[in-house]
Each structure stands twice: as C-alpha cells, then as structure tokens.
Amino acid sequence: xxxxxxxxxxxxxxxxxxxxxxxxxxxxxxxxxxxxxxxxxxxxxxxxxxxxxxxxxxxxxxxxxxxxxxxxxxxxxxxxxxxxxxxxxxxx
Length: 92
Known about the structure:
Largest sheet: 3 strands, antiparallel
Shape: elongated
C-alpha cells in the first residue's frame, strides 16, 4: 500500500546566524537558479570565454559553458575572433 504525502513547503527564512550561513534552499530552488542564470550569465556584462592565443589559427575554435549555456569562441578566416551563444535547440 502506497501512502501519498503532500510535498514539503520550502522554509525560505534566512538563518538567524546572519549572512555567513547560506541555507540549503538557496542552492536547490529552481527559481533561485533561474534568477542567478539570468542576472549573472545573461545580464549586460562581459564574461570570460577565452584568450585569443588559445585559438591562434583561422578556423580554430573553443567551446565553453557559461552557466548552463554553451558558447563557442572562434577565429574566422580573416583573423578576428568571434563568440557565439548557442541558445536555440535544433531538431526539437
């Protein structure tokens, strides 16, 4: 016999010890995760992807992940470096 139980509500209170203790829900809440991805990795700021010396030849590329988004740093045939965020899922 299976007994159904209601999901536990998250206790979103910050510990009384102050800001030196981060509660578990801050690491595991999907809403907090989405906010961090948006504010940190998708905001209006520069993010480190790589160095030009890592892709010295035309056609060289490097794939990295910023947050949960894949990014490609590539050197085109003329020489300049370009970075591309692969945001669209293909074939879905």
